[in-house]
TrEMBL record:
The lineage of its organism: Bacteria, Pseudomonadati, Pseudomonadota, Gammaproteobacteria, Oceanospirillales. This is tRNA-(Ms[2]io[6]A)-hydroxylase. SUPFAM superfamilies: Ferritin-like. Pfam families: MiaE. It comes from Vreelandella arcis. One of its GO terms (biological process) is tRNA modification. InterPro entries: Ferritin-like, Ferritin-like_SF, tRNA-Hydrxlase_MiaE. One of its GO terms (molecular function) is tRNA 2-(methylsulfanyl)-N(6)-isopentenyladenosine(37) hydroxylase activity.
Length: 218
């Protein structure tokens, strides 16, 4: 496996994560990924790829479930069907990359992250859908931020792949946020702020196992 594990030295590329990340994402997330997670990721290159594959598959399936449930929303249907296709393509790309690198795909337990956010879902629509869409935006935003943080430390092939993902996950973030705001005439900024704070807590607090969306080592 050829991820370069050099967390204590200078990045292998002369790129700064901040240069890669869209401005709106900086403003949206409450905190950057802690350096301790970055070091943890570079120490676990295989789990990083396997869990990344899992996340892409999960992202496609979340989008698919919205397609089934909200058939009366044309914009949601078109955005989510496009998103599901893109996430499945990403899944395929990660799995191919794993194969080339001899990383065996195996089952991993899910991280606490998505469930830690979803447990705050309100029970009735439209509130429930608004929450699901806000959480979708957050997961896309964090994924995008983590890809950008990792890129300077990765080998050329993986860095190139992750640069394409920064672009598409950044677009997914905007789509989810647009759809969330479109569900109501009221402002949803307070609800967004609530989830942004929950997310930052999950990202900065000690976690038991390394995953793509885990907190920091316990
Ligand atoms: Fe993706
Ligand atoms: Fe995405």
């Amino acid at each position: 496996m050829s991820i370069q594990v050099i967390p204590d030295t200078k990045p292998s590329h002369s790129l700064d994560a901040d240069d890669l990340l869209p401005e709106c994402l900086h403003d949206f997330l409450a905190c950057p990924t802690p350096n301790a997670w970055l070091t943890w990721a570079l120490e676990n290159p295989e789990i990083l790829l396997i869990d990344h594959a899992q996340c892409e598959k999960k992202a496609a399936s979340t989008a698919m479930s919205l397609l089934y449930r909200y058939v009366d929303q044309p914009l949601l249907l078109s955005k989510m069907s496009q998103l599901a296709r893109e996430e499945l393509l990403h899944f395929e790309q990660v799995v191919n990359l794993m194969e080339r690198r001899g990383v065996a795909y195996r089952h991993l337990t899910a991280s606490r992250y998505a469930e830690g956010l979803r447990r705050h879902l309100r029970p009735q629509d439209p509130e429930r859908l608004i929450d699901i869409l806000i959480i979708g935006a957050l997961i896309e935003a964090r994924s995008c931020e983590r890809f950008a943080r990792l890129i300077p430390y990765l080998d050329e092939e993986l860095a190139r792949f992750y640069r394409t993902l920064v672009k598409s996950e950044g677009r997914h973030f905007e789509d989810y946020l647009l759809l969330a705001r479109q569900q109501t005439d009221q402002l949803i900024d307070e609800r967004i702020a609530f989830f942004v704070a929950c997310e930052a807590e999950l990202i900065t607090s000690p976690d038991s196992a390394f995953r793509f969306h885990s907190g920091v080592p316990a």
